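Please check this chain.
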Amino acid sequence: MNFLKQFFEFTRPGNNNISGQCKLCGKLYADKLKSTGNFHKHLKRKHTTQYEESKFSDSIPTKNDTNDYSENLTSNVIKINQVILEELIVKCNLPPSIIEHNGFRNFLKMVAPKWKPTSARHFTKTLLPSLLNNVQDKIKNLLDSVDHLCITVDVWTDRRGRSFAGVTGHFLDLEYVPQALLLDFLRLKGPHTGENIQNITIQILDNMKIKGKVYRIITGNACSMIKAYKFGLSVTDIDYTVQDDNKQQQDDDYDGLSEWLLVDWCENNNDLFDKGNDPAKRLSCFAHSLQLTIRDGLKYTPYLSKSLSKCVNLARRSHKSTKIADILDDIGKTINKSNMTRWSSEYLLIKS
C-alpha cells in the first residue's frame, strides 16, 4: 500500500471497500479493502514507464539497509565457521580439509544457505591460531587466581615417528573441585635429553606465568624425565631385548627398559609444607610405576611368562590369518593384541 500512495490519493475505506484517485490521470478506482489488484492494473496499463521505474527503485535497498544486511550475513558466516572449528575440527578431531569436500559443502548449503565456502588454509592459518590465543588467554586468567598447582609432563612418539610433548596443570578451584587444563602441546624436535625437556617445561611455565606456583611435577620413569627434574626415581639401564611385531606402538620412553629404585626425595616432614625457595619436586606417575612393577613380576615368574608367550603367539597368528579371523568373527570373539609398554593389554589378551 505504501508503494501505491505515491500514485493514488486514497479516501477512508467504507463498507470493506477502498477508493483512490490517480495522481497522474485523475481517474478514480476502487477495490476491496485488502486487495490492490485494480490499482496495480491501472498503473501497468496506463502508466507503464512510471510504474516500472518506481518499482525498480523501490526494490533497491538503501545504503543503511545494505550495511545491515552485510553485517548480519558476515556475522552468520563467522558463527558457522566458529562452530565448525570448535565442534568438528577440535572436538571431533576431523581434519580441516573436510571444509573443501563437496559432500560437506553440499550439506551446509542445505542447512545454512547463507554460509560461504571457506578454504581449509583459512581455518589452519587464521581461525585456529586465533582460537588458540583466546583459549590460552582464558587459561592464563584462570590461573591468576591459583596459588599452587601440580603439572604432568609426558613425551611420546606417533606412528610416523614424530615426537610431541604435553604439559597439563592440575589444581583445585575456589569451590574445591579438581580441574585439569592442557597448558601446552607442542612438537618436540631433536634428542629427548633431560636438558631439552627441562627447557621446554620452563618455557611453557614462563609463558603461562606460573613457574613459581608449581608444587609438584609428575612424569614417567624414563631416564630423560628423571634427569630433567632430578627428583623421584633413580633409574639404571639394563640389557633387555624386546621382541614385538607391533613396534610402532612402543613409545620412545619405554619404561620396561629400566630398573627402578624409589628414593626418599623428602628430607623432612616440614619439607612438604615449606613455601620458601624449595624447587618443585618430581613424582613418578603411578601408572608408569605399576607398569614397571608388573613387568618385573612377569620376568621373575617363568611359568607365567611361558603361558603369556603362547597367548601372544596365538594373538599374532589370529591377526595374520584370515581363516582364524573369519572363525572368530563367526563366533563373535576377538583376541586383543599385546603391547609391551602397557600391562593392561596383556591382561586383556589373556581375558579374551
User: Anything to note?
Assistant: The first strand starts at residue 8 and ends at 10. DSSP finds eleven helices and ten strands in the chain. The mean pLDDT is 74.
